[in-house]
Amino acid sequence: MSELIEAFNTFIQTPIGAIIWLVARIFAIMVPVLLGVAYLIYAERKVLAAMQLRMGPNVVGPFGLFQPFADALKLMGKETIIPSGANRFIFIAAPMLTFFLSLVSWAVIPFSDKLVLANVNVGVLYLFAVSSLAVYGIIMAGWASNSKYAFLGGLRSAAQMVSYEVSIGLVIINVLLLAGSLNLSDIVRGQTSMWYAIPLFPMFIVFFISGLAETNRAPFDLPEGESELVGGFNVEYSSMSFALFFLGEYANMILMSGMTVILFLGGWLAPFNWQCPIEFLEPLWGIFWFTSKICFMLFMFLWVRATLPRYRYDQLMRLGWKVFLPFSLIYVVGVAGYLVSTGNFPKVGV
Amino acid sequence: MNAELIPAVLFYLFAGVLVLSAMMVVASRNPVHSVLFLILAFFNAAGLFLLLGAEFAAFILVIVYVGAVAVLFLFVVMMLDIDFEQLRKGAWKSLPVGILVGLVLVSQMVMTAVNWQSLPTAGSSILSPAARHAAATNTQAVGAILYTDYVYPFQIAGLILLVAMIGAIVLTLRDRGGVLRQNINSQITRKASDVVEVRKVQKGAGIS
Fold this sequence. Notes:
Mean pLDDT of chain B: 83
CATH class of one domain in chain B: Mainly Alpha
Number of strands of chain A: 0
Number of helices of chain B: 10
Number of helices of chain A: 12
Helix content of chain B: over 70%
Strand content of chain A: under 5%
Distance between the termini of chain A: 46 Å
Low-confidence stretches of chain B: none
Oligomer: heterodimer
Order of helices and strands of chain A: HHHHHHHHHHHH
Radius of gyration of chain B: 29 Å
Low-confidence stretches of chain A: none
Distance between the termini of chain B: 91 Å
Structural class of chain B: mainly alpha
Largest interface: A-B, 28 and 30 residues
Largest sheet of chain A: none
Largest sheet of chain B: none
Structural class of chain A: mainly alpha
Order of helices and strands of chain B: HHHHHHHHHH
Mean pLDDT of chain A: 85
């Protein structure tokens, strides 16, 4: 056994071995994320059905468990239609960009104490930068479709995502003030004594609602707005290009839940610092809690969708700019003032 | 595959794509493509910052320019209704002026490049621009320098930008009459007794 480990260690020191090992680790993140996306779609249909006293998908496989794969096969079998007058290159690039951006963020997410692909010092900034790019997929799709419904959906989405990013940024500053680091693993470790959701509870709520708006989920799904825009920015898309938008949207939901868990709910930390009862499962203990918390947040996303009607556009903008922005700004001042006055302001390096 | 080769290859990749996309910003026929090339140029500039080890500057560049400024560019450009043929007609007329301006710029750049001299002390300050903060990560170093050494210029710059922002809002704000506005407070505070009236209606009599 030890010889095998040694051989493995020397193998990943070689240039080709290092690349293979890196690709293997990337796949070890990608495959569970995509499976998660498939079963999130299934879970959404089941949860919505249960809340509306229906059965939900129950025909394909036991309890309808193979439904996501049936849907994927169906979408792949369809024809890709490119509307006349569409800008071909941008039309095809937009869904690819959306899907790509929803996956690259996972590079910096810490799954447990040691399990992280890239432990960068500015992990929060990386996540924020990638999530601020997501708007391009939608606005490019809306413009390239050469259709007024798609264009209106794209414009709405651009305005919405830019507005809510501002309050998300201020909420993140609150967390950074408490943690004193931009490294996601350090932020989680800073929550060992108390999850940041407790001292920053109002900010937790603001972040969750802004996350709904940022991922274009109900009640802020105006870019899609079926009732007035047919299907919004993705009206003209069919087949795999539509599937990529769909997958990207759900992967973004999982990512946003992951961000909420890391920033506010203690990431991989077990509640009350419980120890793992079974010793040889210890390495999985962090992953278990991280995924459980993500599932809880995702359930909240679905619950909100089943409960609330869609916002009107001017109300959405009012909430973002006139309520969340001043509120989170005042909270930043308050938290910074409290930390300075009690002498707990994080002193770092310099 | 040695350690020096990879950064060099990445540098030429980023720099090459940066220059090419910057040229395409000017050269492409469709303004939306121009903005998209501009975004590509920002990205490659961020890549160059990363190679320098300035990760904070790289991500701030992406967040501010790509995530916010370029979105607004794209917004405006997509809304424009431009007739490109009309635009290109006048291009030949202004060609001599364009060549003249270009020549002046190129000659200035050449003169600067030929006479360029670094300060004798510059070498050491390039190697460690913030000697006091050598141990800090560059986010911390930027924060420390900006908020302690240069706090007044920084705050003054912030105030100037605030004034510019308020000025822009004041200039574009118009009070138009006859616009229906929603007053959330009055909606929430109104009571059923003020707006609903219950009446007994006679059979077949209707209500007036």
